[in-house]
Amino acid sequence: MAGARGAGRAAATGARPGKRPRGPEPEPEPEPEEPSLACAPAPSLQDGSDSGLSESEESVFSGLEDSGSDSSEDDPAEREDGVSSDEGPSGMEKTTGQQVQAGSPSPRTEVARVQGCEEYAEDSSDEEDIRNTVGNVPLEWYADFPHVGYDLDGRRIYKPLRTRDELDQFLDKMDNPDYWRTVQDRMTGHDVRLTDEQVALVRRLQRGQFGDGSFDPYEPAVDFFSGDLMIYPVTNRPADKRSFIPSLVEKEKVSRMVHAIKMGWIQPHRPRDRTPSFYDLWAQEDPDAVLGRHKMHVPAPKLALPGHAESYNPPPEYLPSEEERLAWQQQEPGERKLNFLPHKFPSLRAVPAYGRFIQERFERCLDLYLCPRQRKMRVNVDPEDLIPKLPRPRDLQPFPTCQALVYRGHSDLVRCLSVSPDGQWLASGSDDGSVRLWEVATARCMRTVPVGGVVRSVAWNPHPTVGLVAVAVEDSVLLLNPALGDRLVVSGTDQLLSAFVLPEEPAVQPARWLEASEDERQAGLRLRICHGKPVTQVTWHGRGDYMAVVLAAAGHTQVLIHQLSRHRSQSPFRRSHGQVQRVAFHPLRPFLLVASQRSIRLYHLLRQELTKKLRPNCKWVSSLAVHPAGDNVICGTYDSKLVWFDLDLSCEPYRVLRHHKKALRAVAFHTQYPLFASGSDDGSIIVCHGMVYNDLLQNPLLVPVKVLRGHVLTRDLGVLDVAFHPTQPWVFSSGADGTVRLFT
């Protein structure tokens, strides 16, 4: 064994570590009288074992683990055949650091190798072929070391030099004919050339064959037990005792089964009837039948029975005339009452084959196969029970029912109106550039104030001791003193405005407060608030000191809040959430409702935070109104919907009313009566009863009670604004026909 190992080491030291032979090596002729090279003692750099290497020599090879060369070691075939003598002096050049890697055997080992050369020359046991003896351990453990393991004598197996780049590998692949059969041994890191037998073994395994080429998988099997009666038994083991003693467990099982058969719990198997069973597919379904046992079985639709027209000898009235025949041919197949023309034959034998027989049978099969039949549970419900039990409108009075007065005087469409807190006066703004003040009871125009532009919004101050009307004209808000009614209220309003003292250092504000000139004061104007951007709406807070303004501009300054007593303006928002359509103050709490195109946001002004976001699920919000109790909100949309929100219930709509045919322009709540109204471009005002209960467990009751008409459609516009009287169940409406109408 030691001789074989020494021969392998000698062959390994004779090879050059970096180059393989360029071609196949010629086999040397046998010379039995001279010992082969494989049996010669391996030259060594130094006598002794691996421990003869000094630390400096070990440090030379300690950095070889990261080099990427492809040094070769002689494969097993070369160990057996030996090194050819044709190499000449090149064999001496190959003796580089590989000899040091292999190590020098001891003298005792060399003697044993020379003595046992002939005995172990052909030994190829697995134990001797494996040079690396580290066992079944991961080779990653040796990644940071210059060696990959140890041989049988305990000497290190150093990693081969790897100094070859991709170009050298490519040239080796082109020049070396054995490149395709060369693999790398992971245990030693050296290249191994596969022999012909190993290549044949790999190919057999790739094809799914047996590894042994001489194995015949199809050879006849030899039965161990033959079918012939044998004189001597294969096994002569004596029989068990349990084979001839009755089993108590089986006896108990049999007694149980006998008892079950006597009680009728187990029925004996009856012979199965092999005759096929047929049933009538079109018969009336019997609950005991095969298909009747399926609960969800839906019977196939029955074919209509043939009538007199399908007879071969129909009555004369069923035979079509020539005009009816032509009309039948010109009709579409789906419009014909009969899909055939009745014919008369003298006898049944003269009836020809039906031309559409196969087509009709095929369509019938398609109807049976593709028809989506579904069982629908019919519920006998009275249609009257589905209608909600709403009270009669006569029980919900009072509410406006008829037109009482028409306020005429504007020459263009009236966009907005507002009623004074005492309900005696009415202000209206029009596109003709004027604001008119009316007496409600007589429809008399008390005053006309020209403002020089289109009036977008008018709002009367809700405080009873402050007689001011805010008018939105172009980019300004005008504060008018109408000088109507109580003289103490008129004089007190002027004293309130004149009591303001301008500070020495005015703060920077988003709007400018300008005093009216002497001529403007004669017309009733007291203050002008300039914004620089068009104003679309103005609305007052319930206490009359604050008002909110909506500007038609992008950005966070779309909504401004003005304080009348201090002449101060502020922008409450830092960023915008879309184009603002309407704003409204909460009647009881410090909330501000801001309606954009798709949503309504509820802001807490003291905490400066968003409290709730309402989703109307509509395309465009046009108007907004808050219930006097503050817990319900309605909004009108341009897609002809009125949406009611219950703030205590959900952010989704409680009820969506679709009573109008066109876009809604205005919605309003009554301050005292449970009424709300909506005006639309279809020229109608719909008054609804909206009762909100104090009991939180009871939902609001919404009942439409009256449809009011009177406005004439102008430029496809109808009612533009709606407002309720503060104390009476009356409703005012302004329209595109230039009139204001009162319904009582």
Automatic annotation (TrEMBL):
Originating organism: Neomonachus schauinslandi
Quaternary structure (record): Component of the PeBoW complex, composed of BOP1, PES1 and WDR12. Within the PeBoW complex BOP1 interacts directly with PES1 and WDR12. The PeBoW complex also associates with the 66S pre-ribosome. Component of the PeBoW complex, composed of BOP1, PES1 and WDR12. The complex is held together by BOP1, which interacts with PES1 via its N-terminal domain and with WDR12 via a high-affinity interaction between the seven-bladed beta-propeller domains of the 2 proteins. The NOP7 complex associates with the 66S pre-ribosome. The PeBoW complex associates with DDX27, BOP1 interacts directly with DDX27.
Extent of Low complexity compositional bias: 1-16, 35-54
Pfam families: BOP1NT, WD40
Compartmental location: Nucleus, Nucleolus; Nucleus, Nucleoplasm
Protein name, UniProt field: Ribosome biogenesis protein BOP1
Polar residues bias spans: 93-107
Any GO molecular function: ribonucleoprotein complex binding
Cross-referenced SUPFAM superfamilies: WD40 repeat-like (SSF50978)
Function summary: Component of the PeBoW complex, which is required for maturation of 28S and 5.8S ribosomal RNAs and formation of the 60S ribosome.
Keywords: Nucleus, Repeat, Ribosome biogenesis, rRNA processing, WD repeat
